[in-house]
Structures are given as structure tokens and as C-alpha cells.
Amino acid sequence: MATELQLLWMALLLYTLAGSTAIGATVLATRFERVILAMILAGLAAHTLSLGLRWERLGHGPFITMFEILSSNVWSLLLIYAFAYWRAPAVRPAAAVVMPILLVMMAWLLVTSPAAGHYPPTYRTLWLYVHVLFGKIFLGAVLIAVGIAGLILLRRAGVRVARLTQLPDAGRLENLAFRFMALGFIFETLMLIAGAIWAQDAWGRYWAWDPLETWAFATWLALACFIHLRVTVRLEPHYSAALIIAVFVLAFLTFFGVPFVSTAPHKGAV
Amino acid sequence: MTWFNRLASPKFTLVVLGLLGAGVLLVYPGDVRSDWALTVPLALLAINLACAVATNPVFRQQSALLAFHLALLAIVVLAAAGRLTYLKGELELAEGEVFEGTLTRHESGPWHRSQLARARFANDGYTIRYEKGVRRAETRNTVRWLDDTGRERHAVIGDNEPLVRHGYRFYASFNKGFAPVFMWRPAGGAPLRGTINLPTYPIHEFRQALEWTIPGTQTTLWTMLQFDEVLLDPEQVSRFRLPQRHTLVIRIGDMRHELAPGARLALPQGVLVYERLGTWMGYTVFYDWTLPWLFVACMLAVTSLAWHFWKKFAAQPWDR
Which residue segment(s) compose the domain that B64 sits in? Predict the structure, then answer.
């Protein structure tokens, strides 16, 4: 267990360095993009090893305790962000917004207990992996949209740091953020379908309005409203950005807040 | 603007989605019955979708978007049909007992026509493994039934694996326990074998007692299972099993008797023979014929929406 934790701390240190560099680069208008990506990838390599060692030791994936859920989500969100960072240069400045959000999750991770939890028999199904995979892609896509939305709002709020002034206009940024929200909507829908199939086999009902299902549906509804509004009404980019952040807050509370209030068997262990 | 156009308008869609959100929040604490809080917005959504598809020219230009909205409409209609015809219930079967169609508790849609009597199956016993701390791991329940050709079939059901018979899905539940088997020989009547299902074990470990009435009589018995062994040791991995030694305490009025397996108890109306200790398993049953169609409609909705966005976004690269 000591090696697992050492690797995790190493990963968190590298992520923190990447985040600090990203913020510094935004303020100073310098381009440390390769350095930031290299630090994220090095962190991901250490984090992957840490998760793998824990999986091997416990015999199950990181789906049960808050420590595992936070750790696996930090990993998956950074993996998705790193992929977008590499493939779409337009999302790179968003690191200054995305990384602080992830740093908050990492700080939370550090104060949770790494003790093992009970792996319920209903989790021994392929649908768990499918459900979790779609959920992670959904949250990753929305996080990238939040990063871009944050840039729009920072500039609108009059934050005139050098890198922000070099970005494309708000309309183009908002269009890019909308694409990631659309991607998130597809994957959230798939996550709900996979979850319903799993719930039918595990608990004999595909939908029961348990706290996690209710809040996941509320998030889906909020996302559907946003996409419908964006398509049918000409929204100003800063309104659109504010809605993106509201949807993310709802999604974040669903993923990480519901396990605190739920006593149902399906208590948010994604 | 006509009423039809108003019902088809995208602004009305937003109102309906808002109402649906409000309905979800009303249902969530469990204070409001879900039927109306969700049915009204979903009915309005179906009307809005149908009117929009009929009047909005954008759907004739964008076939993927049309497919998505039609699939959404199908999901709403199927969900409504499912609520009208569904069944959810519970039953208990002692080891070797055959399910004949009687549920201990159930709820169903008003249009459900029960075919449960056709879904006969027998419980042939189960194994349950417990991890340290008496945390339930795998449940394996062997069931047996005759298929439509009269051939005997067997299956092992349990976590994530229901028995599906004539559209009814039977799930072995966490609800299970001990079931003493009795033979009742009434004076001058035919003997009758039966079981009583003691409260769920290990949840009610210290309350293994039940009051019951002997069939065809007014005699009420209080029955308690008594044993000293630790069956599920919190310090070890263990399995659900019968105790190696036990007695059954029977109280009739002020009389107290302790019975071992095979013991007989003479009563004024006949003889009660305690044959052996067995087990029982609790099942939940679920019926909803719309499930495969809902899956198809959901997949159609998500693939058509993905196709729509793909075409829309492919026109301009992501890295600009």
C-alpha cells in the first residue's frame, strides 16, 4: 500500500506543478504548453501505476470508497483533458481554469481515508465498467467546456492578463464549449442507459428514483435544457458560459455529493 | 400563432422541461405521488414533440434530428405503456417448494393481465458466501422449471442474473432464512406437509421466532429456532448454512416444548411432527414488456443525436 500512495503523491505533485505552470503561463502570456502536457502525462503514468497496484491488491477497480472515486476521477478527467490538450490547441489556455478545479479534488482526495471498502456482489458485472466509462467521458467533456466557459467569464469580468487577450473572440470560444457540452450530453445519455441496464439486472428495476438516479436525471435535464436553449435561442456567450458552469456544478454534486446523503444501495459509487 | 404552433414551439419545450424538472424535485423527497408530478409534464412533452415534428420544417431537412425527436416520443409513449402494464412483487419459497403464482406483496399497473401462474419454478436451494464482517458476497440459487415442451430445465440465478419466465423476471433477494418443515397429521384427515419461514437471517439473528396457526384448526403456535453455534463468524469468510445442532421451541398457551428433528407433538386435533430444518429464499419479481423496446428507442435516440452533432461539427475543425 505504501508504494501505491507514494506513486499517487508523486502524481498529485506533478499535476500541481502542471496546474501552477498553466496559471503562470496564462498570467505571463508564455507558452509552456509542452512542459505542461509532459508534466500531466508523467503524473498520469505514476497515477496509472498507483491505481493498477491497488486494483491488483484489492481484486476490484476503484469504484467503492470516496478515496477510490476521487482518485479514479482525477485520473480520468486528466486523461481526457490531456487528450483534448494534445489534439485541440484551442482548449490549452483552459488549463488555467481546469487545473484549479482538479486541484480542489486532489486536496479532497488527500484528506479521505485510503482504506478498502466492501465490493458488493452486484458490482461484478460488465455493465459497471460500461456505465463508469461513459460517466467519466461525460464529466471530462463537461469539465473541458467549463474550462473554456471560465475563460469567457474571466475576460468578461475584466481580467486582462496577457494570455486571455490573445484568445479567439467569445463567440468562437463559446462554440467550442458547446461542442464539448454536446459530447457530454451524448455520453451522459449513454451512462444513464448503461446504468439502467445494470440496475435492472442488479436490483430488479431499471429506474427507481433513488438519490443518485434522481440527481443524474436532473443533470441530464439541465444539460438538455442548455442544449435546447443554445440551439433555439441566440444566447450571449457569457450567459451560455454561466449555464455551462451551472450544469457542471449540478453534475459535480451528483457525482461527489450524493454519496454523502444517500443510504440506498446505489449510492453513487461511480 | 395557432394553438397547434404554440404547442409545437421550442419555448414550450423549455416550459415542459422545467415542469419535468420540478416534478422530479417534487417526487424526490417521496412526499408527492410520482404519478401526476411526472405524468403531466411527460404527456405535455409528448404533445410538444409530436406537434413540433409535424410542423417544424427543420425536421424535414435534418433526418438525424427527426429520428432523435421521434425516438424521444417513442420513449415517452413506451414509459407510459410500461407504467400501465408493469408488475412488481415479492414471494418466498422454501427449499423444494414450487412457485404457483401467488405473491406475498405486489403492485401493478391497471392494465396488467397476470400470467404468473404460467411462470412456475421450484427453488432447489442456494449458497451464499459472506466476507469478513458478515458482508454478503455471491448468492447462487439453483432453480428448476419445465419448459414449454415439458422438459425439465435448471439454472443458477443470483447477483445480476434473474430467471426470466414468460416475461417475468425473478430475482433472488437478500431476504432469506431458516424454514422448519412440519408434517401435520389431523385426527381422521389426510396428512399435510408445510414450512414456516422464520424472519430473515442474519438481519434478525436474535429474533428467530414466529407465531402461526396450524391449518384447519384454531391452534396458534409460537415457534422459535434455538442454537448455540456462530454460523456467520465476523472474523472469517463464511457461508450461509444450517446449524449442526438445534432445537425448536414451541409454545402453545402456557405449554412449552423443545423439539429435535423427528420429534412428535400430540395435540387434541392431531399430531404435529417436526421433520427437519430447511431454508427459504425471498424473490422479487418484475414484469415490463416494454424493456427491449425502450432499449431500442434509447439507442436510436442517442445514435441519431450523435449523428446529428457529428454532421454539424464536422463542417469546422475542433482545433480552431
Answer: 3-86+289-314
